[in-house]
From TrEMBL:
Gene3D superfamilies associated with the record: 3.40.50.1360
Protein name stated in the entry: Glucosamine-6-phosphate deaminase
Catalytic activity: alpha-D-glucosamine 6-phosphate + H2O = beta-D-fructose 6-phosphate + NH4(+)
NCBIfam families xrefs: nagB, PRK00443.1-4
Listed GO MF terms: glucosamine-6-phosphate deaminase activity; identical protein binding; isomerase activity
Keyword Hydrolase belongs to the record: yes
InterPro entries tied to this protein: Glc/Gal-6P_isomerase, Glucosamine6P_isomerase, Glucosamine6P_isomerase_CS, NagB/RpiA_transferase-like
Glucosamine/galactosamine-6-phosphate isomerase domain: residues covered: 8-224
Organism: Jonesia denitrificans (strain ATCC 14870 / DSM 20603 / BCRC 15368 / CIP 55.134 / JCM 11481 / NBRC 15587 / NCTC 10816 / Prevot 55134)
Record keywords: Allosteric enzyme, Carbohydrate metabolism, Hydrolase, Isomerase
Entry keyword Ion transport: no
Length: 260
């Protein structure tokens, strides 16, 4: 893992955006993996700014989301398909038809995981996957106990997760009980992973992911298997890393021999 420690979410967003822009500019048909949640928002803001002010085009880009609630239509305000649209894709020139999410229709949910895996395969895989991390070490809806070899599938949401997400709905009763999520093994298929986290609340999860043993108790620790992961954290999120002094705190461009 490359661990980059910055002073602020905005500084980290600039660094992460430079990697995404490299992929967008260097490939004919790049595929971006998009995550919801608060951690990636500064990155999306920076990419939107680059599109608006610098003419960075995403017209040739396809995008895929990590997960989706079962039972919410794609245009529901809290469906992740719509959240990604409102937070990022509608502000740039990605064609709506090129933004893909798991099919959360309950009538088709049983084989939705297999169908989404087929979509990912037909797109040629994800070039750069953006991730956040939960305070318990989960990524996407792969909560502690998830199989490290899991693929896209239906997960039953824990009471804690539903309670945490209730603030986005009118009440806890409105929060779906099930979600479709890319599995940990699916996420590992991405050619590059960029994970962003800020704040003291994420410090324990970051330490477990980067320096702890690989374990289903911290699902994000599976990223230790991946050959090209960049972890962008602020000093608070990095505060429990025992070897923080070995990690990068400079935001200079990559050396010429290093390929994103």
């Amino acid at each position: 893992m490359e661990v980059v420690i910055g002073q602020s979410a905005e500084e980290l967003a600039l660094y992460a955006a430079s990697m995404v822009r490299d992929v967008v500019r260097s490939k004919d048909h790049p595929v971006l993996g998009l995550a919801t949640g608060s951690s990636p928002l500064p990155l999306y803001t920076e990419l939107i700014r680059a599109h608006r002010d610098e003419g960075v085009s995403f017209a040739h880009v396809s995008a895929v989301t990590l997960d989706e609630y079962v039972g919410l239509p794609p245009d529901h305000p809290q469906s992740y398909h719509e959240v990604i649209r409102q937070e990022f894709t509608r502000h740039v020139d990605i064609d709506d038809a090129r933004v893909f999410s798991p099919d959360g229709d309950p009538a088709r949910a049983m084989d939705a995981g297999e169908r989404y895996e087929k979509v990912l395969s037909e797109l040629g895989g994800v070039d750069v996957q953006i991730l956040g991390i939960g305070t318990d070490g989960h990524i996407a809806f792969n909560e502690p106990g998830s199989s490290l070899q899991s693929r896209t599938r239906i997960k039953t949401l824990t009471d804690q997760t539903r309670s945490d997400n209730a603030r986005f709905f009118g009440s806890l009763d409105e929060v779906p009980i099930h979600a479709l999520t890319q599995g940990l093994d699916t996420i590992l298929d991405a050619r590059r992973v960029v994970l962003m986290a800020t704040g003291q609340a994420k410090a324990q999860a970051i330490a477990a992911m980067v320096e702890g043993p690989m374990s289903a108790s911290c699902p994000a620790s599976v990223l230790q298997w991946h050959p090209h992961v960049t972890v962008c954290v602020d000093e608070a999120a990095a505060s429990l890393l025992e070897h923080a002094g070995y990690y990068r705190t400079s935001f200079e461009r990559k050396p010429s021999w290093q390929k994103w």
